[in-house]
Amino acid sequence: MTKQYKTLGEFIIENQDSFKYSSGELSRLLNGLRLAAKVVNHEVNKAGLVDILGEAGDQNIQGENQQKLDVLANEKFIQTLKKREIVCGIASEEEDDFISINSFDNQHQNKYVVLIDPLDGSSNIDVNVSVGTIFSIYRRVTPVGTPVTIEDFLQPGVNQIAAGYIIYGTSTMLVYTTGDGVNGFTLNPALGTFYLSHPNMSFPENGNIYSVNEGNYVHFPQGVKDYIKYCQKEEDDRPYTSRYIGSLVSDFHRNMIKGGIYMYPKSSVASEGKLRLLYECNPMAFIAEQANGLASDGKNRIMEVKPTELHQRVPFFCGSRNMVQKAEEFMKNANA
């Protein structure tokens, strides 16, 4: 007998009691993200066949050259979310400022803001490596009935009501949490439907993979260097395996399944780190903590950092609980 898998829509309905806000609103939000993800997935999969590879000719707010697929993904997610008339604002890693949204007759009644990295790891497209989309959802803090302000977006990660990512790999998966565990859904491209394939995802408490760009080793703080040497030492269950794809979604996804730590520390050439707090670190931290993992800036819990700007960067250490704690220990000792 063929096993019957729940669809994403069925799962949301069956688990609506675990979401303390309106399940109908959550369903509309996730449906919007799901629809945009299918469009982007289609474009990513045909990237080698048509002229959508390479740079678009502009730079994003971080001064990084925008890849053509970055621009396409950004447009698709923004357009789709606008049409669902459920969000009052969107902030994207590809946009200089946040976008205030109001339908013709809505009078700013929508309650949610979405922060999104439309295509994480897009520089890997040309070499056919997995990329992804990361999203984070908050309830607005300004009064309903007024336009959103920057205050609605500069919320600490602990205020997230949902977060997730879509990974465009050998199969396309949507992984998300609403604060009640983490579940993964795989797209059946023939039907255009996401099915529950990875229920109750969880980091092993220990792992044997460390993911860091070791090409930057000379620029890392001493505590990070010490931890990397610890990972490489032939002792007990070590040396660990070094695995680094350079696409946060891909590295995170592998480590959550197999056990490991992802690190993007500050360095002498990137004093604040490289990853964005609002678009990358907070949503991944929410998922990690809901999957029995930890996420830190090397000293403090990522989700308790109070954002000061939309495109703020922070150091990021995330993954199996015991590995993150050990990394923090090395950094603390180096600063003693």
Strands, count: 15
Low-confidence spans: pLDDT under 50, at least 5 residues? none
Percentage of β-strand residues = 15-25%
Distance linking N and C termini: 61 Å
> For this entry, what is the oligomeric state of its chains?
single chain
Number of helices: 7
Order of helices and strands: HHEEHEEEEEEEEEHEHEHEEH
Q: Helix/strand/pairing class, anyone?
A: alpha+beta
Profile the largest sheet: 8 strands, mixed
Short description:
By secondary structure, the protein is α+β, with helices and mostly antiparallel strands. The chain has helices at residues 8-14, 23-45, 68-84, 222-232, 248-258, 277-290, 321-334, and strands at 55-59, 65-67, 87-92, 99-100, 112-120, 131-139, 162-168, 172-177, 182-188, 193-198, 209-211, 241-242, 260-264, 293-296, 316-320. The chain contains seven helices and 15 strands.
Structural notes for this entry:
An eight-stranded mixed β-sheet has the order 4-3-5-6-7-8-9-10, with helices on both faces. Strands 12-11-13-15-14 form a five-stranded mixed β-sheet, with helices on both faces. Strands 1-2 form a two-stranded antiparallel ribbon. It contains seven helices and 15 strands. The mean pLDDT is 89.
